[in-house]
Design goal:
This protein is mostly beta strands. It contains ten helices and 47 strands. The radius of gyration is 34 Å and the shape is flat.
Length: 737
Amino acid sequence: MQKVILYIQPQLRSTTATQDFVRVDLMEEELISLTQVIQDVSDIDKLFTDYSRTFNLPASKTNNKIFKHWYNPDIDGFDANVFCEARIELNHLHFRFGKIQLNEVVMKYNEPSMYKVTFFGNTVTFKNKINEDQLSDLVWLNNFNHNADANYVKDALENGKDFTIDSVSYTNAIIYPLIAHSQSYIYDNQNGSVNLSNGLNISTNTSHHQQRGVVPEDLKPAIPVKNIIKAIEEQYNITFKTSEFLDSDAMNNLYLWLHRAKGRITGDLFVEIKNTSFNCNSGANCTHYDGSTYDSVQFDDGVYALTQKNSSSASPPTPMEEGFSFGVQIITTSSEPYTIEIVDDLTDTVEATATNLVGTNSFSIGYGFNQTNTLQTGESKRLYARVRSEVAISFTVVLSLTHSFYDPAILGRNLSLPANYQSVSSSIVTTASIIITEQIPEIKVKDFLNGLFRAFNLTAYVDFNDEIVVRTLDNYYAGGDTFNITEFVKTDEHTVSEALPFSNVDLEYSEPKSILAQTFLSMNNRRYGELNYIGDTTKKKEYKITLPFEHMLFERLQDKTSGALSTVQVGSFLDDNLEPSIGQPLLFYAIYQQNVSTSINFLESTRPETYAALCPTGTNHSLDDYWIPSVCNTLGRTSVPPLYNLNFGSEINTYTLTDYGGDNNSLFQTYYTNYITRVFNKRTRIFKFNAILPLKVLLNLSLDDLIVVGTRAYTINKMSTKLQSGETNFELLNEPS
């Protein structure tokens, strides 16, 4: 019999200080049973961890002290809502690290009799930390915030944007791929046609290139999934072990599109008027009074101080009151709503706000003498205005300053000196300040990770360095050792049963909300990228895995006139009515097209209200480098498929238009085939053995190990061990010949 020792680190409500590990009293007569399972053939999509059946702890003085008499609600101490760190030792040798959860207390005659607890393996720690958090809670992602003016968007489309954070370089951390959100792209380079009613022409035909093409607001950014994983590490103080799957080539250039709301991006768009050149348009009135002379008002310095000047002619000197007003007028023909904010630059405080404005509007505030607002004498303001809007929009700005004075000794009257200034530029285009956490799709962190785990058939465990090891199931089993336990197995009885729990396995993405994927579904009666694996069985039980992601059918553009294929592949997040759409978060591989034969036009302009109409003339750029979206990590060749593919099943390559006949490195072929085909193999059985394992085996045996009993080898499906006695019940899958 092994001696089981349990230590826990209590979580207390009354303190945030780290507690010491405390040895718990155990019931001598109770055998603690620990069940371990990573992948169960009856539940293939779930991530499992070590867990025990609920077991009892005596209500001893030691345990009452540890649990702070939790059964008494009047005592604020132990927090049963939080898992406690725990470790199990066998004969004083480390066996497992994990968590303890207090479930309930059994009372007898109004006194505590026992505590019921459950031990969980360490992967549950992470699940407990993330709780119901959303990706938008991952504040580390805001290191990639940026101002998406025309030059930035063009560079992110043409090259990708690199960031350096804490001396670490993140290459292509922001890209703007060719995925349309409001109207699809077309390519017509032959007859010089402009934007058509059914699409935006992005060709560079010189006859109309200044009135068509990709404009900044047509695009939305995307971020690498690897950077989301990094943000999860930073947010929850965990570490995913390097050189495992999350660092693999399959994750390179896998991106999440920042599509939180349908249509144009709803960023924090603004123009700061303090950075704009103004001309006075009110003649001699463009002045202010300094006590003796009239001087030109200079908006550049932006500092206004009320100093309560004294009259020079009065005896004794009479304080002269002073005040000023600050006003902004926005002149625009756009029907898009916007907001005006007047900001104190000294304190970064918004002094006043006018919201939901449309068309031409004026707005002002005042301080000091004869003004509505109050500013005490001697205080200063460095004021500027800014305009915020949910879309890029052009403005003409008129800035109004009015200085008010009262000097009874000199003037004997109130004096008001207005000054109006109009922006020199005929238009000022707002800049989108992209806050990543405000643009990232709405999905829980746990759902995002579960989606990745199910897509790539991953499993995870926590190693002795407290790092989370993430591997494909095939790689997990390949990393184990071989244990021959024949001498420890009870040979008098074992059972053999079938391994096939389902008639078929259906692997698919969420219901499509983008037009081509919807069309594919209606034409083929199945979702794009779906795989339905049907076993040769009369059972009618289906197992379905549905990923929480959108799966888009991308399109390689043809020249509308000649029919020639371009090098441009695009996505369209439109519904079947050609209206902007929103669905589940979109994952895709980004492919960098460099020095390709098909150039596209990028136009520094804004999109008219009629989306396909001619764009206003603006600076145009012919781009032969750009990022395109794909379900594959490379373009592929007609004879060789890309190495990684986000389809579950076999689909025609949208770029090469090649049907690889099922040999296309799909998610199923790469990550599921070995396990699923083995389970469906007619020669596969579940063998159940009972064994009495010695301590040397218990301490070293893990779920990825290969078990040998007699002349046959098995992988572990599940094992349950009574820790004191070493009695272990195995569920094993044979290796079919």
